[in-house]
Amino acid sequence: TFIEIEPIQGSSDRWEPLAISGRENVQISKSGQERFLKHLDFLKKSWSYTGFFVVRSNNNFPSDCGLASSASSFAALTHCAYLAIRDSDKAKKLDLTSENLADLSRQGSGSSCRSFFSPWGLWDDKGAREIDLPFKKLHHQVIVVNDKIKQVSSSEAHKRISSSLL
């Protein structure tokens, strides 16, 4: 995920595609934009920030198809909003840990909390944190055979799994 946050004058935040040379502009559905900006609003309230931003983002894989695009996007948004607000003169000074940011990011997309730790993160009932594993080099490949938006959101799938006969 690539993201830029820029302070703006006005009365609301807005999302725009981030133009990257040689890359398609990613479009997010209206509901996706609303969810993204709702999380930004949550962060701003958490940090007593009253200004507004234009958020520009781009992913190097399709959104809403089950490849954790929302997880990486919400982690990037949380991290960038933290840096922008921390360094602004409109908010109290912030000094948050990766664990603090992971907990806040998780409110927008649960899986995003693992993105704050490298190379390995664990998310359990105690929260998210870095863990040490003996695997230093792991290769992972994803082959996208269909970039269509999935019919069931991850949140809905998590609800359904507990009662599924499968």
Number of DSSP strand runs: 5
Helix % is 25-40%
Strand order across the largest sheet: 1-3-2
How many H/I helices? Answer: 4
Which runs of at least 5 residues are low in confidence (pLDDT < 50)? none
Mean pLDDT: 86
Largest sheet: 3 strands, mixed
Q: Given the helix and strand composition, which structural class is it?
A: alpha+beta
Shape: globular
Write the H/E string, N to C. EEHEHHEEH
Terminal CA distance: 33 Å
The fraction of residues in strands falls at 15-25%
Q: Radius of gyration in whole Å, from Cα?
A: 17 Å
Short description:
This protein has 166 residues and is an alpha+beta fold.
Fold and architecture overview:
The protein is 31% helix and 16% strand. The relative contact order is 0.15. By secondary structure, it is of the alpha+beta class. It has helices at residues 30-46, 69-86, 98-105, 154-161; strands spanning 2-8, 14-17, 52-58, 121-124, 127-130. It is globular. It starts with a strand and ends in a 5-residue tail after the last helix. Helix 1 runs parallel beside helix 2 (69-86) and helix 2 (69-86) packs across helix 3. The protein is built from four helices and five strands, in the order E-E-H-E-H-H-E-E-H. Strands 1-3-2 form a three-stranded mixed β-sheet, covered by helices on one side. A two-stranded antiparallel ribbon has the order 4-5.
Write the SSE topology.
Blueprint: E1 2-8, E2 14-17, H1 30-46, E3 52-58, H2 69-86, H3 98-105, E4 121-124, E5 127-130, H4 154-161
Parallel strand pairs: 2-3
Antiparallel strand pairs: 1-3, 4-5
Helix pairs in contact: 1-2, 2-3
